[in-house]
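Propose amino acids for all 507 sites.
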């Protein structure tokens, strides 16, 4: 494609959730101003824009679930709701003057590596552009997953996924089937239970649920945080430290989590008096194997007479009758899917075509892997934020995002130091060595040994999503880009034919 036909930028960031907004702030701090943020929606926010279901809130305290470089002394609650987190990201966007870089309604359809020009050709729904470097921040949970239930097309009522809540549909007085008992569902159930006529909860596997100690942050606390910013940092530090201490139990000594199971059982017993229902709700796997959910109102809501728990998955729909795998049949007016997201089959991977003409999805067909959670071999100058094995079971993803932003900043610095037209391509040996270490550590963790199947595991049962260590360890591992782990690519012109190709250059 001729140079004049489209715009060229130094960096294209894809996505404007915490990852994309954070990358934009970091690029500006590194002195990079020639960048765009491509976002398929019409506002920033990512997760916290798309998930607006009743009761949607963070299960990490707000002072930890926020950027360290943009502390918010005014968080209203210890665990903030979706609307406050979304508003926070909008404010960060304004305060750091990111608006000129944002391109809304620009869905990235395809990114193709041009090995001759050493840059990415990007096709979006609003036009084409090229970029020296792509930062893919499309998120770990961007696209909802709706199971293929036989007969769904015969259902005459309302159907939607928790991540695409239909606020125009009034659930008041309706008979509702809630499918799934994951993190979203346990927030939705208590929020809608008082309004609906009947709530049928399809539970394939019960979650472990711990109480959520949520309260309003007092005016005095907020005034203190505003007057003495160090107190916000201290609060954050304390929240971080507590979670770091828990990591050993998840990663090395899962048996120690038995004590936590007792607390979770007590939490359930307080609200659920019927032993048969308690039995249905009691998990048979080690706590922590699936994400530990936090709620103080889930069990009380379930105990209400208008809620039925069907301890089985939804297997079929026949008109307005929903049928569980155990044969239970119920008539409903609406079905809400709280069935999670495409995680181990990251949707953007289908759209990225690397140096060998293969998509990232093809390269990852046997499991996602990336060097330090960021770089895939054969995809030069392409980094992902919250890539493979960067997820957390017990702490704030913002900590991991910020570590990856450090890595991004050093990546940009290394390219500057190398100078000229240059690209860094993760060496396959480095990617494999990193992943061998990650998978070796994974063997002892509760996510692999706890006796559950979860969305952390891919189709082959490999855990390609979770980081098996502390956030501090990940911070240290991503502080610098080690050039020995990358091939440095330069363009080369054949003096006889004038044709260009790419060679690995000495550093
Ligand atoms: C309901 C819910 C609750 C959660 N609660 C917590 C929690 O309590 N604690 C925690 O640590 N984490 C939580 N998470 C995880 C959360 O996803 C991360 O913490 C974090 O918000 C991810 O930020 P991100 O920017 O990487 O991704 P996202 O916030 O998902 O943003 C990705 C952005 O990329 C855009 N995009 C995707 N594809 C394209 C494309 N092809 N072209 C252009 N734009 C594209 C999307 O529109 C979106 O705006 C939760 C997730 C969900 C869904």
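Proposal:
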């Amino acid at each position: 494609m001729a140079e004049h036909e489209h715009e060229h930028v130094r960096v294209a960031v894809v996505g404007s959730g915490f990852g994309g907004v954070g990358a934009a702030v970091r690029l500006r701090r590194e002195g990079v101003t020639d960048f765009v943020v491509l976002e398929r929606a019409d506002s920033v926010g990512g997760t916290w824009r798309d998930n607006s279901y009743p009761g949607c809130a963070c299960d990490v305290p707000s002072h930890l679930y926020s950027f360290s470089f943009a502390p918010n002394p005014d968080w209203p609650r210890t665990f903030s709701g979706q609307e406050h987190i979304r508003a926070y990201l909008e404010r960060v966007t304004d305060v750091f003057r990111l608006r000129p870089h944002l391109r809304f309604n620009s869905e990235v359809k395809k990114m193709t590596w041009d090995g001759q020009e050493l840059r990415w050709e990007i096709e979006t729904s609003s036009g084409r552009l090229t970029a020296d470097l792509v930062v893919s921040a499309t998120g770990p949970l961007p696209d909802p997953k709706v199971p293929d239930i036989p007969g769904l097309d015969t259902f005459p009522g309302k159907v939607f996924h928790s991540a695409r809540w239909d606020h125009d549909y009034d659930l008041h007085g309706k008979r509702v089937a809630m499918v799934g008992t994951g993190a979203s569902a346990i927030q939705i159930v208590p929020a809608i239970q008082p309004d609906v006529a009947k709530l049928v909860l399809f539970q394939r596997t019960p979650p472990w649920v711990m109480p959520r100690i949520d309260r309003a942050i007092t005016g005095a606390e907020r005034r203190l945080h505003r007057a003495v910013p160090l107190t916000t940092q201290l609060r954050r530090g304390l929240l971080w430290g507590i979670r770091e201490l828990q990591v050993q139990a998840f990663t090395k000594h899962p048996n120690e989590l038995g004590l936590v199971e007792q607390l979770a059982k007590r939490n359930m017993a307080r609200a659920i008096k019927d032993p048969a229902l308690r039995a249905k709700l009691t998990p048979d796997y080690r706590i922590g194997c699936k994400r530990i959910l936090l709620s103080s109102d889930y069990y009380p809501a379930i105990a209400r007479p208008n809620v039925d728990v069907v301890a089985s998955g939804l297997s079929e729909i026949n008109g307005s009758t929903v049928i569980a795998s155990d044969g239970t049949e119920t008539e409903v007016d609406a079905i809400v899917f709280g069935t999670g997201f495409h995680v181990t089959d990251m949707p953007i991977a289908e759209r990225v075509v690397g140096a060998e003409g293969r998509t990232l999805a093809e390269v990852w067909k046997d499991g996602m892997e990336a060097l330090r959670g960021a770089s895939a071999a054969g995809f030069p100058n392409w980094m992902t934020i919250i890539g493979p094995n960067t997820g957390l079971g017990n702490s704030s993803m913002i900590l991991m995002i910020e570590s990856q932003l450090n890595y991004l900043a050093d990546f940009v610095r290394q390219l500057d130091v190398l100078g000229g037209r240059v690209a860094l391509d993760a060496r396959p040996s480095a990617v494999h060595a990193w992943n061998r270490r990650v998978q070796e550590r994974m063997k002892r963790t509760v996510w692999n040994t706890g006796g559950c199947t979860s969305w952390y595991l891919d189709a082959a049962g490999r855990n390609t999503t979770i980081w098996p260590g502390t956030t501090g360890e990940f911070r240290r591992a991503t502080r610098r880009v080690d050039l020995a782990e990358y091939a440095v690519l330069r363009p080369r012109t054949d003096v006889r034919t004038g044709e260009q190709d790419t060679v690995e250059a000495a550093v």
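The longest helix spans residues 229-251. The CA atoms of residues 259 and 287 lie 10 Å apart.
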